[in-house]
């Protein structure tokens, strides 16, 4: 993403202090925040957010190709496009990729970029730890996918039910990659959860009480708590699996007294909160978009926050509904059946509150709003089919059929993913300084929505017709051929929709550059939260001064007020009151190599567990180097000239920075702002 | 036409399920009492969901049209300054209302759910003269075994002495049931988790190694009811079927009497006798034939690799281990399918009465020979897996003559 380099942000390192004047060496502290190298050393939450976005989009294409392979295989009865073995690897990796390498990091992209901005902070609490999270995730993702060329990908399903994942039944190294790759990626989630929780709880702008936070911030806060408690559970399960497979332990081996159901409980105690980890970010995103494009405040803010928290709590009490046919006995099944039914209540409240927000509003159907309304419509379908499985007796017919596949795709694709796309269109101007093209955006939306329904709608019918999941093929006498062909056609329409998005990214950027990179202004949508109160793209230091918050939707209240007759009138134009990014006395944490070094020692440890322990030597060297380097290096480089205060740098582009900023070095005060930035 | 709603719903259902095939896999069935209850229950539930669906989608579409403001061509443009709708921040009463409303709806659904739930694995309709005490259902990669334990009446029908130790009948792939009798199943597995499901007759229940899960099955209709494995179990997860077969009680008695009898060695000098020797040399290490092979005669691999554990995780007495690593073939020709239920043994299974298949069916020789010669080529398995053999070995070295003899022998196993 070179956009920020095209329009340099106000506060890059001045010429006299630039890294170019210093000897470059492995041990020299990196300085630059422009250029391709800066992406590897950055600790800026915005750059990290962008990297999460690009990375998750890449894996979205990978997971999408896997989905298309599955759909080619299932398009007609008795097909042998993929062998049984490859099919099992492909559907396993489709699930693993879409959940751990797409939806979760995509949500992390939004969280990283937006949480500090929405709470009025300059960065996350622990910037280097934040970089470490990203690199850990990427290291885990790459590690997992190297299994394709190193003897076979995981083939036990994303749910990896024991004992099918033991060495006896899955003799390739695929499940080792699964277990270790997800442990590495899990470190990313866990560290990032702590980081973001501290950021939201400790670094909010003065005046922003918890109940004045934007809903997106609230939902992401709930998600981080879910991650904080859920990730350790899956980590334990994966750790046990690694020991079963690599060191002959027998946690899940019946013959040795182990229990296959232990895996299922551990997996779903993580796995069900995980569902809310996937969906709540999208709920947060559309809770920002719908008010903005309805020109009304969110309806029932306390209920929206409360229902999000309720979902977070209740999400812990429903895991066994994934195990209704496992044989838990009717008492447990009854309890989990009821708890699952009642989790529909807070979700229903959210849907009704979004509808009430739209009611009587001035609905402006720009692309973000289209996607957001799409989420309401599609998620409702997923929610309703969810209610039908909470009824455990009829779930014994539906579970492990395509009805379930339809259900969770309506939730995760129709809810989470469409929500993320809404977010892309909404915040794109904030991140890159220009809007995405509306025409391509609409093509993107309608292709995806129509393709999505053609793909996953008929799966309800297939499931009720009795088509089981994870089957390599089906017989022509089964009568599944017709709908499967429709489904496969639909999946390629989704593919076209994704292609439209990629084209849109390219076209919009091209048009923007062709037009001479016109400034878009801080607040192109007349939006409501603090990220819109600073220049677009966001200046490297976010805010010129600490925002002070008075109201919920504070930015909106800065622009609009009521006159004596109670009529809403404009108080100010965004351009006049927004931070223009011209402050020069802000001291930001310095970039660092060490998070990158440390995180990439982890996959080498993974290979050591799988292949030979000799690899622990290079891995250990890297690990200790990264660890010590990080520990011994101060959060701020004392040798770097304080304050990115020299503005004599000319990059040859027009930009609207104020050339007259004086640049008094006031980093004493500013460093205090960053007092928490010791990560 | 008893009630209005179901009629409408059924009309929609017919439309939706129009693509249905010849095999009754679909989950809306009244071939058993439970399946009928589940199906009725689901229709009501879907009707409730349909109402909510229509209301929400209707609201979305209505509002999208009614409250739409045409986006200006220049997409940088925003609302005019004075065009504000009423700024409503919420309405506590309304919101409490729509918190309580779904709670009440779900509570009502919950009450009905609990009623049906406790009925699912409860054997309450055994009939006046039940034949079957229980059937132990054993999932294995990638086939199903059924071990029948008979009641005294069942023992008598099968011609077995009273008090004979079970299991009394052991078969694979097919589960013949006397019509009307609700039967207790004990579902377990030898290796990984499978799931037992005959959609026309009941929901599913997982077969978990080390556990015995109770379940029930009943059929009210004559005929074959297929069901697939529904818990992912590896390579041939898609190719692991079982068939419940509904038989009139008299027919079932005849079936049981045949099954309970041991196989008889073919006469010397016949092709079948040649085939028996081919079988003994190649197949008996995994396949048991009651009366001909002995338990464990297949060598140590067969009994040591696959062991059956009961619910308390104790190794069940080997005397009751009634098959080797592979299906018991004592009466293989009396079945309508082979190879884990996925190949038809006869060309015309549905036009000949089930009991007469062995005598009147047209043998599907092509598939049978292909299977014996090279099973992994027609159904994926892991016979050569480094983790241990799972699935049938290919016998590509068998001569054509040996194969003919082997088939002649198998044909005696009716």
First-to-last CA distance of chain A: 25 Å
Count the E strands of chain A. Answer: 3
Mean of all residue-level pLDDT scores of chain A: 89
Number of strands of chain B: 13
Give the biggest beta sheet of chain A: 2 strands, antiparallel
Shape annotation of chain B: elongated
Please state roughly what percent of the residues of chain A sit in beta strands, choosing from under 5%, 5-15%, 15-25%, 25-35%, 35-45% or over 45%.
under 5%
Terminal CA distance of chain B: 47 Å
Which structural class best describes the helix and strand composition of chain A? mainly alpha
Short description:
The complex is a heterodimer of chains A (679) and B (414). With 679 residues, chain A is mainly α.
Characterise this structure.
The complex is a heterodimer of chains A (679) and B (414). Chain A has 679 residues and is mainly α. Helix content of chain A is 60%, strand content 1%. Chain A contains 21 helices and 3 strands. In chain A, strands 2-3 form a two-stranded antiparallel ribbon. In chain A, α7 (215-247) packs antiparallel against α8 (260-294), α8 packs across α13 and α14 (438-465) packs antiparallel against α15. Chain A is globular. The relative contact order of chain A is 0.12. Chain B is α+β, with helices and mostly antiparallel strands and 414 residues long. In chain B, strands 4-3-2-6-9 form a 5-stranded mixed β-sheet. In chain B, strands 5-11-10 form a 3-stranded mixed β-sheet. In chain B, β2 and β3 form a beta hairpin. In chain B, α1 (4-16) crosses α2 (33-66), α2 runs antiparallel to α3 and α6 crosses α11. The interface between A and B is large, with 112 and 103 residues. β1 (363-364) of chain A pairs parallel with β1 of chain B, so a sheet runs across the interface.
């Amino acid at each position: 993403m070179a956009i920020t380099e095209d329009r340099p942000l106000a506060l890059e390192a001045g010429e006299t202090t630039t890294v170019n004047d210093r000897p470059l060496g492995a041990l020299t502290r990196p300085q630059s925040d422009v250029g391709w190298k800066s992406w590897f050393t950055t600790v800026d939450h915005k750059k990290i957010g962008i990297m999460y976005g690009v990375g998750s989009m890449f894996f979205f294409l990978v997971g999408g190709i896997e989905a298309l392979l599955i759909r080619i295989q299932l398009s007609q009865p008795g097909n042998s496009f993929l062998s049984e073995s490859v099919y099992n690897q492909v559907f396993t990796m489709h699930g693993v990729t879409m959940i751990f390498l797409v939806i979760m990091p995509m949500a992390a992209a939004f969280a990283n970029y937006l949480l500090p901005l929405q709470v009025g902070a300059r960065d996350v609490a622990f910037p280097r730890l934040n970089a470490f999270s990203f690199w850990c995730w990427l290291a885990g993702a790459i590690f997992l996918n190297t299994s394709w060329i190193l003897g076979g990908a995981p083939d036990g399903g994303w749910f990896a039910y024991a004992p099918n994942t033991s060495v006896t039944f899955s003799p390739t190294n695929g499940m080792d990659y699964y277990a270790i790759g997800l442990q590495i990626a899990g470190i990313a989630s866990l560290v990032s959860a702590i980081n973001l929780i501290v950021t939201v709880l400790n670094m909010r702008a003065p005046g922003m009480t918890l109940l004045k936070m934007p809903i997106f911030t609230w939902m992401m806060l709930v998600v981080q708590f879910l991650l904080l408690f859920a990730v350790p559970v899956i980590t334990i399960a994966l750790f046990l699996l690694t020991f079963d497979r690599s060191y002959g332990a027998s946690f899940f081996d019946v013959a040795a007294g182990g229990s296959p159901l232990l895996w299922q409980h551990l997996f779903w105690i993580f796995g069900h909160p995980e569902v809310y980890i996937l969906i709540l970010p999208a709920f947060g995103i559309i809770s920002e978009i719908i008010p903005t494009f309805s020109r009304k405040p969110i309806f029932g803010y306390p209920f929206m926050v409360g229902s999000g928290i309720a979902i977070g709590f209740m999400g812990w009490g429903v895991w066994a509904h994934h195990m209704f046919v496992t044989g838990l006995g009717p008492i447990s099944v009854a309890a989990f059946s009821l708890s699952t039914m009642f989790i529909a209540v807070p979700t229903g409240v959210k849907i009704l509150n979004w509808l009430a927000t739209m009611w009587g509003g001035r609905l402006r159907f720009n692309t973000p709003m289209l996607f957001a309304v799409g989420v309401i419509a599609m998620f409702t379908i997923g929610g309703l089919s969810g209610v039908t499985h909470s009824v455990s007796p009829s779930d014994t017919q539906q579970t492990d059929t395509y009805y379930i596949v339809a259900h969770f795709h309506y939730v995760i694709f129709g809810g989470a993913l469409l929500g993320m796309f809404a977010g892309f269109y909404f915040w794109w101007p904030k991140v890159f300084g220009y809007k995405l093209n509306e025409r391509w955006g609409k093509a993107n939306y309608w292709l995806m929505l129509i393709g999505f329904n053609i793909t996953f709608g008929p799966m309800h019918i297939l499931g009720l017709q009795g088509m089981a999941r994870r089957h390599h093929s089906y017989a022509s006498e089964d009568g599944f051929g017709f709908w499967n062909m429709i489904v496969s056609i639909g999946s390629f329409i989704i593919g076209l929709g994704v292609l439209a998005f990629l084209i849109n990214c390219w076209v919009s950027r091209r048009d923007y550059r062709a037009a001479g990179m016109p400034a878009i202004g801080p607040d192109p949508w007349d939006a409501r939260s603090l990220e819109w109160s600073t220049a677009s793209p966001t200046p490297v230091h976010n805010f010129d001064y600490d925002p002070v918050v008075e109201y919920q939707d504070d930015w909106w209240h800065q622009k609009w007020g009521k006159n004596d007759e109670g009529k809403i009138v404009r108080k100010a134009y965004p351009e006049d009151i927004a931070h223009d990014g011209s402050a020069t006395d802000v001291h930001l944490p310095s970039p660092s190599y060490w998070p990158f070094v440390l995180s990439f020692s982890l996959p080498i440890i993974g290979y050591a567990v799988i292949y030979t322990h000799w690899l622990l030597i290079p891995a250990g060297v890297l690990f200790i180097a990264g660890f010590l380097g990080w520990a011994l290096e101060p959060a701020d480089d004392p040798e770097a000239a304080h304050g990115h205060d020299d503005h004599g740098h000319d990059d040859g582009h027009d930009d609207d920075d104020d050339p007259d900023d004086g640049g008094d070095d006031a980093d004493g005060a500013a460093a205090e702002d960053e007092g928490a930035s010791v990560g | 036409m008893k009630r209005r709603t179901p009629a409408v719903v059924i009309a929609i259902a017919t439309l939706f399920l129009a693509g249905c095939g010849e095999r009754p896999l679909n989950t809306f069935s009244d071939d058993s009492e439970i399946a009928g209850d589940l199906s009725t229950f689901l229709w009501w539930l879907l009707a409730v969901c349909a109402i909510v669906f229509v209301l929400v989608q209707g609201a979305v579409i209505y509002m999208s049209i009614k409250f739409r403001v045409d986006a200006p061509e220049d997409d940088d443009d925003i609302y005019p300054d004075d065009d504000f709708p009423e700024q409503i921040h919420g309405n506590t009463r309304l919101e409490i209302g729509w918190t309580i409303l779904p709670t009440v709806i779900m509570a009502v659904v919950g009450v009905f759910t609990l009623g049906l739930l406790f009925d699912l694995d409860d054997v309450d309709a055994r009939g006046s003269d039940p034949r079957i005490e229980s059937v132990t259902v054993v999932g294995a990669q990638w086939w199903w075994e059924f071990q029948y334990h008979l009641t005294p009446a069942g023992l008598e029908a099968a011609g077995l002495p009273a008090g004979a130790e079970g299991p009394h009948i052991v078969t694979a792939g097919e589960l013949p049931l006397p019509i009307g009798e609700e039967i207790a199943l004990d579902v377990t597995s030898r290796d990984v988790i499978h799931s037992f499901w005959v959609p026309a007759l009941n929901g599913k229940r997982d077969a978990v190694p080390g556990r015995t899960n109770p379940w029930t099955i009943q059929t009210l209709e004559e005929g074959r009811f297929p069901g697939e494995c529904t818990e992912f179990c590896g390579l041939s997860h898609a190719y692991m079927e079982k068939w419940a077969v509904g038989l009139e009680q008299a027919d079932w008695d005849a079936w049981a009497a045949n099954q309970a009898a041991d196989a008889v060695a073919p006469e010397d000098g016949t092709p079948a006798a040649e085939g028996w020797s081919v079988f003994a040399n190649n197949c008996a290490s995994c396949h048991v034939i009651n009366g001909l092979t002995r338990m464990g005669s297949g060598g140590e691999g067969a009994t040591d690799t696959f062991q059956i554990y009961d619910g308390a995780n104790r190794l069940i007495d080997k005397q009751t281990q009634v098959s080797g690593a592979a299906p018991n073939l004592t009466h293989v020709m009396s079945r309508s399918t082979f190879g884990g239920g996925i190949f038809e043994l006869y060309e015309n299974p549905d036009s000949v009465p089930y009991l007469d298949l062995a005598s009147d069916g047209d043998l599907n020789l092509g598939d049978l020979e292909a299977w014996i010669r090279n099973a992994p080529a027609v159904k994926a398995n892991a016979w050569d897996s480094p983790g241990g053999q799972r699935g049938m070995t290919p016998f590509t070295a068998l001569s054509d003559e040996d194969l003919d003899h082997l088939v002649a022998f198998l044909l005696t196993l009716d």
